[in-house]
């Protein structure tokens, strides 16, 4: 049998779908998750009487997903290294409380800062990020150098940091927060508007095209197999369609009538008879989540540190014998997780315009579920940042949809738990087949 005959036989076995997936190099698990997300969206939209797939709900869904998605990107690294972090929700809570106290009480009453001082939110945010980094370093040191299992350390952290958040204010809610700080929570003023959103969309599409062209040139340089040109074009068109579609949805959601009226009166604008349409555009917390996702993807795929993380998760003994400082890498992963929890705390507290003791409660379960549903294996060694962020979107879609459908909170917990178990089971089945 000639080589040509063999190739034709293999192509016939693959079928049209197999050849398409091979040419585009799309991850079948990622496609499956996207398909599940679309099924959930369409199903909830029908059951809710057309309330789910609306610009308003999708915009709010993107904002609600941001904080969990940011922490899920860090949880990927933690789980890839065969560890777990049960404390992220409590770290989010205590850091949010510190940032709230810093800007609403300490800086004003103790240091004499005036309301509206531009340094208020900057110092508060910096203090929160620094605290998150220190907490992550502390827990990472105990796990890496004192060799206490991550499950126990972070379970203790879950209790300790939640208690600390309560002790800081004796259970009080701290509000209101700095007006500039509140922009990180979204809302009409926490969005960038229609024009800036389209500009960002265009820049993102240009970045996609550059990434595809650069990737193709790198493959040629190192003599790696090239994707067909049609596959490159297809991937670029689909990516740009998704980006521009998201921008269109964000720009289709207008400001509330009352806020538009206040804005018009303040700026001397006459409201026309049909009303004044001012688009929200992309929310600032969504942009923050996207930036974090890009940075974390770069870290995992383009840096030596990222390669070390996956090497340790794949085989810790071999990584250690290869000269990788596994303890220091482990500690750095938990430091990153602490910083990401601090960023999420800023978004969540800014969105509420208050620091509360309930902030971040049970978020650790949502974050772990998002990472696992996104394809991060609990056995270690595999996972993607994009998958975790899609997993966060899927989890938040379920919760938002169940709220729209009027499903009771206990039943919501049952559904979320069942989805997590099914996701782990599917991961087990997939690993056995590979």
UniProtKB/TrEMBL annotation:
Molecular function, one GO term: transmembrane transporter activity
Protein's cellular compartments: Cell membrane
Membrane in keyword set: yes
Membrane topology: Multi-pass membrane protein
InterPro entries to which the protein is assigned, alphabetical: ABC_transp_permease
Pfam families, A to Z: BPD_transp_2
Keywords assigned: Cell inner membrane, Cell membrane, Membrane, Sugar transport, Transmembrane, Transmembrane helix, Transport
Any Gene Ontology CC annotation: plasma membrane
Residue intervals passing through the bilayer: 30-53, 59-81, 93-113, 119-138, 150-169, 189-213, 233-255, 275-299, 333-354, 366-395, 402-426
Function: Part of the binding-protein-dependent transport system for D-xylose. Probably responsible for the translocation of the substrate across the membrane.
Name of the protein described by the UniProt record: Xylose transport system permease protein XylH
